[in-house]
Amino acid sequence: MEQLNHYVEEFLNFLTIERGLADNTKTAYRTDLIKFSKYLKKLKLETLQEITRKHITNFLINEKEKGISARSIGRRLVALKTFFRFLVSERILNENITDTLDSPKLWKTLPGVLSVQEVEKLLKAPKLTDPLGIRDRAMIELLYATGLRVSELVSVKVDDINLQAAFVRSIGKGSKERIVPMGGKAIEWIQKYMDRVRIKNKKGKDSPFLFLTIRGTKLTRQEFWLRLRKHANEVRIKKKISPHTLRHSFATHLLSNGADLRLVQEMLGHADISTTQIYTHVDSDRLKKIHKEYHPRS
After folding, report:
1. Is residue 12 one of the residues assigned to a domain?
2. Which of 29, 144, 193, 279 is catalytic?
3. Among 38, 173, 200, 262, the one annotated catalytic
4. Is the pTM of this model over 0.90?
5. pLDDT tens across 128-175, in order?
6. Active-site annotation holds for 29
7. DSSP string, the chain
8. Annotated catalytic residue within 169, 192, 244, 286
9. What domain count does the chain have?
10. Residue 152: which CATH number?
11. Residues 107-135: what's their mean pLDDT?
12. Which domain holds residue 217?
């Protein structure tokens, strides 16, 4: 598409003169825009005015299907957004068709989700004859009950937990505080951990943190991740698992059972609801069920 290629060069000159952009960034933008131009050429488009949002979306999907990394796809979208903003500012186009396109963060590869049955297997994996097994059970129960980030989980303090009111106070990204409800099972196992394990850990008597090592110190994210992986291997869960897998499962299972998206957003501590929407991608079974139940031609 010759017209687009011409304006790409003008755009890159603009970035050099007006914006002082680094050579590496300009090279990356040129590569991304040339790929887009070649894609449009296959579609036999000849003018910029023929390009629609759908063409851009399909281009990015096509790149994803080729196995291009999420980071590279995100960069392609940034390049396209910047380019079309330039075209509008130069009055070459009247409308910026990229304004309403998704943020690059939505192209991130999502972690796997566990089924309800797999979560149950994982919860029952820690050996309860071992004090650390009781601690791990309480941690996994709390993680799945609340969708906390692992950094939030290991930073929970004793004073952050209210077992009577059934909630945990968490400080998330940007030091934002939120209150997350937790269910009966999480409350039960946290109480068991506090009564049977934590209270006997004399080394940790002065620690404000809820979950402690046998040394009485705050558990690290890495230590918990290794324990979680160990338990998953013991019950032969084949999926790649991390603490974030349980956060993802928490959100997905809530949405699958009819939870409101904005309430899930609040519990996860997402600033932007578009970030929460990525969890709806595995909810196709529920959508099919609703379609079958309510659509007159199903």
Report:
1. yes
2. 279
3. 173
4. no
5. 999 999 999 999 999 999 999 898 999 999 999 999 999 999 987 767
6. no
7. -HHHHHHHHHHHHHIIIII---HHHHHHHHHHHHHHHHHHHHTT--SGGG--HHHHHHHHHHHHHTT--HHHHHHHHHHHHHHHHHHHHTTS-SS-TTTTSPPGGGGSPPPP---HHHHHHHHT-S-TTSHHHHHHHHHHHHHHHH---HHHHHT-BGGGEETTTTEEEEE-GGG-EEEEE--HHHHHHHHHHHHHTGGG-GGGTT--BSSB-TTSSBPPHHHHHHHHHHHHHHTT--S---HHHHHHHHHHHHHHTT--HHHHHHHHT-SSHHHHHGGGGG-HHHHHHHHHHH-TT-
8. 244
9. 2
10. 1.10.443.10
11. 87
12. 116-289
281 is catalytic: no
**Is the same domain home to 156 and 208?**
yes
Catalytic position from the list 76, 135, 137, 247? 247
Task: Indicate the residue among 107, 136, 170 that finishes a domain.
Answer: 107
Catalytic residue among 149, 198, 231, 253: 149
For 242-284, how does the pLDDT look when each residue is reduced to its tens digit (9 = 90+)? 888 898 899 888 888 888 888 888 888 877 666 676 666 555 5
Q: 157 lies in a domain?
A: yes
Encode pLDDT of 38-78 as tens digits: 998 888 887 888 888 889 888 888 888 888 877 788 888 88
